[in-house]
Design brief:
Layout: E1 6-11, H1 17-25, E2 30-36, H2 40-50, E3 53-55, H3 58-64, E4 69-72, H4 79-88, E5 92-95, H5 103-115, E6 120-122, H6 130-140, E7 147-155, H7 160-164, H8 179-195, E8 199-207, E9 219-226, E10 231-237, E11 247-252, E12 255-259, E13 263-268, E14 273-277, H9 296-307, H10 317-336
Parallel strand pairs: 1-2, 1-4, 2-3, 4-5, 5-6, 7-10
Antiparallel strand pairs: 7-11, 8-9, 9-10, 11-12, 12-13, 13-14
Helix pairs in contact: 1-9, 4-5, 5-10, 6-8, 8-10
The structure holds nicotinamide-adenine-dinucleotide.
The site of nicotinamide-adenine-dinucleotide has 24 residues, from loops.
Length: about 350
């Protein structure tokens, strides 16, 4: 039997939206029908490019279009506001990370999606890279044994221009923070996903060392103790001169792991090794950034497999609450001593 076409729209036509448009076009039986942005020129541009309807008010779009799903590519503080609106209309949501800028609204959105029997996915595309996937499998299968400790380092560059070209980035009330919630969230998520244990206690320090025009943190270090005994230390800064590859290390009972978004190397205590690398056939998306990686299309395709009832949704809002809680708790701790 032919599948019923799913009609979808993208809300927020800024930088990341190209990855969503591209992903939507690669899924069979999914039709992009509309896009929405309060900046008229942005919505008009994509509407013309793709022959779809442009809206400048998302509520009007929900009224006029019969939508099955929306992709939320908005400033962080609007993610759950718009997701809740979509859920109330019975529309499925794939939201960009982070879920929200606080824990309570994210938890509430998960509950509302459940009550309305709709899907709520959150983008953590790096989980689909070959390197983290290999490490996740080696840990889940028990091959690596218990993870004793992990550490991650992120040194990226987000210039003053990056912040001044945005009306929401670099603000506590709209972005919800700086380097943790925007950049390091992916590496913190990878570790949290692989360790897969509740957090027992944590420490975090945040600072703004190099960005005089914004007052969110550009540097952070934290230490997390999980209930299973694993410890995790991280360092992140976005006032480095370039975007270096992220580095994650895990010291495990049966071996040592070094990995990032692209490559993973495992050396087991018995001398055997395993490695994984970024696939070579991944296509670049015009307007995409290297540091976003190539897996948006994969996650979007998985979201629609779940919508077509072919398999359960892997990276659901409920699943992502674990990392979201950690991010929010790191900020709570970090803000205790932060003055800016
Ligand atoms: N997964 C990743 O690797 C990745 C990478 C980059 C950005 N992101 C995420 O994508 C989201 C968007 O980031 P961006 O860099 O594209 O930001 P952006 O500022 O370029 O785009 C956001 C867009 O939303 C529009 N907007 C604001 N309020 C609106 C409203 N009420 N209705 C409709 N449109 C509205 C803005 O006009 C803007 O065009 C953020 O959550 C960000 O963290 C994720």
């Amino acid at each position: 039997m032919d599948k019923i076409i799913k009609k979808v729209a993208v809300i927020g036509c800024g930088r990341i939206s190209v990855m969503h448009f591209d992903g939507i076009f690669s899924v069979p039986n999914v039709k992009l029908v509309a896009c929405c942005d309060i900046k008229k020129d942005r919505a008009d541009y994509y509407a013309k490019e793709y022959g779809i309807n442009a809206y400048y008010d998302y509520k009007e779009m929900f009224e006029k279009e019969q939508l099955d799903a929306v992709h939320i590519c908005l400033p962080h503080y609007l993610h759950t506001v718009v997701a809740e609106y979509a859920f109330s209309k019975g529309v499925n949501v794939l939201s960009e990370k982070p879920m929200s800028i606080d824990y309570e609204s994210a938890e509430h959105a998960v509950q509302t999606a459940k009550e309305n029997n709709v899907l709520y996915g959150v983008i953590f595309q790096c989980r689909y890279n070959n390197a983290p996937k290999l490490v996740k499998e080696a840990v889940s299968s028990g091959k690596l044994g218990k993870i004793i400790s992990c550490r991650s380092i992120l040194t990226w560059s987000r210039s003053d221009d990056y912040y001044s070209s945005s009306d929401w980035k670099g603000t506590w009330d709209k972005e919800g923070g700086g380097v943790i919630i925007d950049q390091a969230i992916h590496s913190i998520d990878l570790v949290n996903w692989i360790v897969d244990s509740p957090v027992k206690k944590l420490e975090c320090s945040i600072a703004n060392h190099g960005h005089s025009k914004v007052n969110v943190e550009d540097s952070a270090e934290g230490y997390i103790v999980y209930e299973n005994g694993t410890t995790y230390g991280f360092y992140a800064m976005n006032n480095y001169g370039c975007d270096e590859p992220i580095e994650i290390k895990m010291y495990c009972e049966n071996g040592k792991v070094t990995f990032g978004y692209d490559d993973a190397y495992i050396v087991y205590n018995d001398g055997t090794t395993e490695e994984a690398h970024q696939a070579t056939d991944l296509k670049e998306v015009a307007g995409g950034k290297d540091y976003w990686g190539f897996q948006h299309a994969k996650q979007i395709s998985e979201f629609y497999k779940a919508l077509f009832n072919e398999k359960p949704l892997e990276i659901s809002g409920k699943e992502c609450l674990k990392t979201h809680k950690l991010i929010c708790d790191l900020y709570k701790k970090g803000k205790e001593k932060y003055k800016n």
